[in-house]
Recover the amino acids of this structure.
């Protein structure tokens, strides 16, 4: 029996047997039962269809997005939400809506390329996912949606180059960790103005924690957020409404409209530091799978993801591969859904037999084999792994009493070594790991043996700081001296908010760490805190 079948069976058993109180809300229970099928419920085809001309308020309050660019294809996303902070989005209950879409070579849409219609189903909370094929490879496009008399903002996207294209350059951005209640998304406004081909979101797109009427650290004086946000997300409606709150942010909308995103989750899209089917508090797995199903369903609905990523019950295959010509292969990982539970109760702990058990896995066996087999077939100049938690070793202090984070790859060292052995055995070129999670910027050399600073450097790790999580931060965090002394492979450590851009070329890759001084007040300018390069065929980061 596969892991997927096991989880699905456990989920359905939980849905049948758990009492109402353990479902947390009756709404959550009803929504959970609906997850037994992957498509809109039977009878949807006969459901009432709302005449779009009856929509009296702007339905495109959450903007537009695109994602997962392929050669000649891109995924377009929007959601109809005239009243985004209400259950049902301000649309008549149970109705579907026909949405028109179009894509063109120019922003004025005088050079139209493709157009069509899509249904906004109530079962998917009136979100729209359109997979547009038949486009030219490796070029920008503009797109928009229409519903009745309403027209969405214009988005700009880009297809990937053809598989055989000798692409000479690619510029990407990496972002992570955007706690609404801890600050403004100012970095996204700056990212929207950058010239990048694709943005990788490395997790914690939203946080499950309560958001006060004043928006937490944002300290709103010009608006009052509804009470529905001032609680932890648990049910499907909780997660859907929380995405609506985040996606009404103007800076986030600007970034989505400017660039295609390739997304992967970490923990907070569901619950802090969960591992597989084990919740943070080690409570019963059956109850947690109900919550996970709700979180995964809302994640797919609200992200520019393709049909293969649509969840079934509490499971969702998020790991996938994108290629940009012969220049870059991106193997996007999911290090949360399949991992073993954190050793020693999680947190920073002294490593030992439990954490070093070879049976422990960060990715699960199926995903691990998929990654290594993908490397075996790779012909890319750069093999990039966008993923969630710190891959390189990070000791807490420069003495034998050091501790390691059990939630990072340090808590799964055998799993990390299998990945590195696979990279060496397949002979891939220029391994680069993109990471989020830790709310700081790091530039690290990946060592064959982290216990020996003189061992071979086998790749590089670029860690994107948070968009807002952790409040304003500092240039030199309080643990700066201890971490840099304890980890000689750490080339850079910076504690402000922002993002990182990476320019991949045939001869070298350059990372620019872009940061803002403040997120508790809006409008901070962006600066480049540091820049590093690594040369093709000569792994290791050097400041420039």
């Amino acid at each position: 029996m596969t892991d997927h079948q096991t989880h699905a069976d456990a989920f359905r058993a939980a849905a049948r047997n758990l009492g109402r109180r353990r479902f947390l809300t009756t709404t959550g229970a009803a929504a959970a039962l609906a997850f037994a099928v992957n498509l809109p419920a039977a009878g949807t085809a006969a459901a009432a269809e709302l005449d779009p001309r009856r929509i009296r308020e702007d339905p495109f309050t959450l903007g537009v997005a695109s994602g997962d660019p392929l050669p000649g294809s891109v995924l377009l996303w929007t959601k109809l939400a005239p009243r985004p902070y209400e259950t049902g989005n301000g649309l008549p209950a149970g109705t579907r809506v026909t949405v028109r879409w179009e894509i063109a070579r120019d922003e004025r849409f005088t050079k139209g390329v493709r157009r069509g219609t899509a249904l906004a189903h109530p079962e998917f909370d009136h979100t729209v996912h359109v997979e547009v094929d038949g486009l030219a490879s490796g070029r920008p496009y503009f797109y928009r949606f229409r519903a009745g008399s309403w027209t969405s903002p214009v988005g700009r996207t880009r297809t990937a180059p053809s598989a055989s294209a000798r692409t000479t350059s690619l510029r990407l951005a990496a972002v992570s960790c955007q706690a609404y209640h801890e600050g403004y998304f100012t970095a996204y406004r700056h990212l929207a103005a950058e010239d990048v081909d694709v943005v990788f979101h490395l997790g914690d797109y939203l946080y499950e924690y309560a958001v006060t009427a004043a928006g937490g650290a944002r300290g709103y004086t010009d608006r009052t957020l509804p009470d529905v946000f001032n609680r932890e997300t648990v049910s499907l409606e909780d997660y859907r409404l929380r995405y609506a709150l985040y996606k009404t942010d103007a800076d986030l909308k600007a970034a989505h409209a400017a660039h295609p995103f390739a997304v992967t989750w970490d923990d907070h899209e569901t619950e802090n530091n969960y591992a597989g089917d084990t919740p943070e508090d080690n409570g019963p797995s059956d109850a947690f799978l109900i919550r996970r199903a709700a979180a995964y369903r809302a994640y797919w609905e609200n992200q520019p993801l393709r049909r293969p990523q649509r969840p079934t019950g509490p499971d969702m295959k998020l790991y996938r591969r994108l290629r940009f010509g012969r220049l870059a292969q991106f193997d996007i990982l999911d290090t949360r859904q399949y991992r073993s539970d954190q050793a020693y109760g999680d947190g920073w702990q002294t490593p030992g037999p439990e954490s070093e058990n070879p049976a422990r896995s960060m990715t699960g066996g199926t995903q691990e084999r998929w990654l290594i087999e993908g490397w075996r077939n790779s012909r890319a100049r750069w093999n990039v792994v966008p993923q969630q938690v710190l891959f390189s070793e990070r000791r807490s202090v420069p003495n034998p009493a050091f501790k390691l984070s059990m939630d990072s790859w340090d808590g799964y060292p055998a799993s990390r070594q299998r990945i590195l052995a696979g990279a060496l055995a397949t002979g891939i070129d220029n391994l680069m790991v993109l990471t989020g999670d830790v709310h700081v910027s790091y530039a690290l050399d990946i060592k064959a043996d982290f216990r020996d600073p003189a061992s071979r450097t086998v790749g590089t790790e670029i860690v994107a700081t948070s968009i807002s999580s952790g409040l304003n931060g500092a240039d030199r965090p309080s643990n700066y001296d201890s971490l840099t002394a304890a980890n000689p492979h750490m080339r850079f450590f910076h504690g402000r908010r922002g993002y990182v851009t990476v320019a991949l070329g045939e001869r070298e890759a350059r990372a620019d760490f872009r940061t803002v001084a403040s997120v508790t007040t809006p409008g901070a300018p962006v600066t480049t805190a540091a820049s590093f390069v690594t040369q093709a065929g000569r792994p290791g980061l050097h400041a420039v």
User: Anything to note?
Assistant: The chain has ten helices and 24 strands.
